[in-house]
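Morning F.,

Quick status update on the modeling queue. The single chain you submitted on Monday has been processed. Sequence for confirmation:
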Amino acid sequence: MRRPGIGEFNLGASAGAVVGAIGSLFAIGIGPAIVYRNPSKLFGTPLLALLCWVVGGIVGWVLGGQLGPRLGFRLNSDRAELVGGAVGGMLPVIIILVWGWRMASS
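Structure tokens below.
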């Protein structure tokens, strides 16, 4: 089994970074936009969204780089590595989405 190093470049890491960064950029505003029923709240915190973009990209890179190659090796497919990386990139998006929802609803 291939055990990639932390931060190593691979297909899963790049997929995780893309999904994590772009998803986290909008995830912080989705909760307030739904709670207040105002789509302009999606872009209401640009500095916080930029910070979430950076953090989501880095965490997505690390998690996707670990999860993607393991799944790709197990299923012997590059597509499985991409899917594993994307799933690893979705984890910071989900965490930021829940955090934004809790902040807006409380």
